């Protein structure tokens, strides 16, 4: 047994100081906990289609004023930027979409769910994962030992910089474990990324050795219990615990999970996470069995490509459809952007330019050729 790696004594008003215990230092970290094992409270989503909405739900921590950020989380446009706004009521338009209308936060004095189990999924970069595991698994093993939680980090997929940290256990134990992981990140150099979902949503940079970021992956069906009626809960969490809390409007690609970015000091994050856990446990039943998990994929698969194909002029109208309905259907199903060139004098063909991921481009081409074949068949039958 070795000396504890962490000396932080969390001093929440409602919790006694943590008594530091020893941790193992030579057992190997389990890095292969599957995303599919995440069946706990914070990792169950309502089914939903991935959207291309470009808003973020956010509120500034100190003044509890609202701001909005762009979050392009579709597979064809992974970039994400965050900008400030001043309107308080621009932010939670989705409160009318079945969201929880609670205004008050759960009490830390309420121990009715003290023994309930929760599971968190946290997005980390490959470099951050190395810090959280530590040499020979020393860091993650120490956190498991001291907090009585289960924790694991997914394998690194070739071509991506993203990994998933999973932490499961009792509510306050998970809050403590996540805070220890946040403390481990303080010792690493601050990284910046220019693409969603690793790009920082907040416009406020972290202060070295003082503040850090945790990227929680939260089921969309449970977002309402965090936001509350007209944003009341998310405002209170930020105001009461002096943290920044920003939720991406769009789902992470291929999933119905949303990213919730927490930024603050380790102590403040701990207090906030205790409340967040209690909020999520309230809405557990609505999300059971409906989660589509976010799985990091190679960026080579999401790299944009462009293809051009030509169709006879007399077929273009049929491919576009009445009021553009047919071409819009191809765009929606494939996820690709399709541009139609102007008619060129002397040419009997029009050029269609298709842009998107390789998969989206191939899907769009297949649908266009299918529609062309159907139209040719219809015309042939009409002339018989």
Structure characterization notes:
The protein contains 10 helices and 12 strands. It has helices spanning 126-133, 138-147, 171-186, 223-227, 232-241, 266-282, 299-302, 313-320, 325-334, 358-383, and strands at 56-59, 66-71, 80-82, 117-125, 150-153, 162-170, 212-219, 244-248, 257-264, 304-312, 337-340, 349-357. The strands form 2 sheets. It has a 9-stranded antiparallel sheet. The protein has a 3-stranded antiparallel sheet with strand order 10-12-11. The protein is 30% helix and 20% strand. The longest helix has 26 residues, at 358-383. It is an alpha+beta fold and 384 residues long. The model is unreliable at 11-55 and 57-101 (pLDDT under 50). Among the domains are: 117-282, TATA-Binding Protein, CATH 3.30.310; 304-382, K Homology domain, type 1 (Ribosomal Protein S8, Chain: A, domain 1, 2-Layer Sandwich). Helix 9 runs antiparallel to helix 10 (358-383).
């Amino acid at each position: 047994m070795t000396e504890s790696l962490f000396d932080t004594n969390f001093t929440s008003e409602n919790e006694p100081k943590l008594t530091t215990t020893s941790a193992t230092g030579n057992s190997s970290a389990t890095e292969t906990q599957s995303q599919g094992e995440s069946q706990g409270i914070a990792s169950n989503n309502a089914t939903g289609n991935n959207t291309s909405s470009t808003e973020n739900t956010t509120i500034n921590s100190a003044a509890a004023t609202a701001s909005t950020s762009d979050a392009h989380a579709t597979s064809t446009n992974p970039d994400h930027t965050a900008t400030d706004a001043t309107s308080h009521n621009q932010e939670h338009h989705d409160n009318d979409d079945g969201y929880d209308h609670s205004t008050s936060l759960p009490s830390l004095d309420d121990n009715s769910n003290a023994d309930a189990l929760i599971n968190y999924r946290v997005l980390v970069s490959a470099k951050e994962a190395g810090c959280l595991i530590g040499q020979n698994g020393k860091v993650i093993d120490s956190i498991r030992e001291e907090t009585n939680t289960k924790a694991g980090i997914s394998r690194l997929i070739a071509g991506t910089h993203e990994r998933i940290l999973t932490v499961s256990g009792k509510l306050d134990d998970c809050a403590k474990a996540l805070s220890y992981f946040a403390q481990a990140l303080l010792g690493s150099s601050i990284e910046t990324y220019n693409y969603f979902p690793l790009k920082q949503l907040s416009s406020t940079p972290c202060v070295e050795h003082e503040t850090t970021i945790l990227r929680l992956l939260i089921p969309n069906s449970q977002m309402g219990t965090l936001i509350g009626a007209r944003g009341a809960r998310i405002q209170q969490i930020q105001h009461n615990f002096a943290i920044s809390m920003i939720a991406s409007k769009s789902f992470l690609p291929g999933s119905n999970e949303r990213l919730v970015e927490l930024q603050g000091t380790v102590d403040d994050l701990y207090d906030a996470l205790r409340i967040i856990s209690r909020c999520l446990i309230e809405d557990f039943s609505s999300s059971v069995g409906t989660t589509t998990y976010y799985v990091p994929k190679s960026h080579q698969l999401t790299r944009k490509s462009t293809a051009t194909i030509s169709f006879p002029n007399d077929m273009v109208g049929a491919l576009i459809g009445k009021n553009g309905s047919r071409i819009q259907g191809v765009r929606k199903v494939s996820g690709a952007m399709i541009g139609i060139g102007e008619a060129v004098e002397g040419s009997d063909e029009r050029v269609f330019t298709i842009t998107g991921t390789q998969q989206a481009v191939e899907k769009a081409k297949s649908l266009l050729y299918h529609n062309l074949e159907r139209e040719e068949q219809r015309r042939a039958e009409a002339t018989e």
